[in-house]
Amino acid sequence: MTRTVNLTVHVKPGSRKGPLVSGGEPGREPGREPGREPGREPGDDAPHAPTDAALTVFLQQRAVEGAANDALVKLLAKHFGVSKSAVTIVRGHASRIKHVRIEHDS
């Protein structure tokens, strides 16, 4: 049985800390105030897509010609113990905030 995990990943390319995966608060995008959507006032009932987890990843590679994306896929595959083909960047190829899908056998 294949299990899918969706992650919101905040990538920091060109970091001297990297490569490093740091955990975040589940269901919250890094850098976003809890309960607040961009352009919405606190208390508004704004629907949003749930995420399974949020991570911050520090990479040494710069965001040039896809080097940071390739390094992200390789690092997440190693971190979660899956093959690189099981890690897919779903959205945010040119952004620091990416939505990643990881498929693995349970």
Q: Could you explain the architecture of this structure?
A:
With 106 residues, the protein is an alpha+beta fold. The protein has one helix at 67-80, and strands at 2-12, 20-23, 53-58, 87-91, 97-105. The protein contains 1 helix and 5 strands. It has a 5-stranded mixed sheet, covered by helices on one side. The longest helix has 14 residues, at 67-80. The termini are close together.
How far apart are the first and last residues' alpha carbons, in Å?
6 Å
Low-confidence stretches: 25-41, 43-51
The percent of residues in helical segments reads 10-25%
Averaging pLDDT over every residue, what do you get? Answer: 78
How many strand units?
5
Lateral arrangement of strands in the main beta sheet: 2-3-1-5-4
Radius of gyration: 14 Å
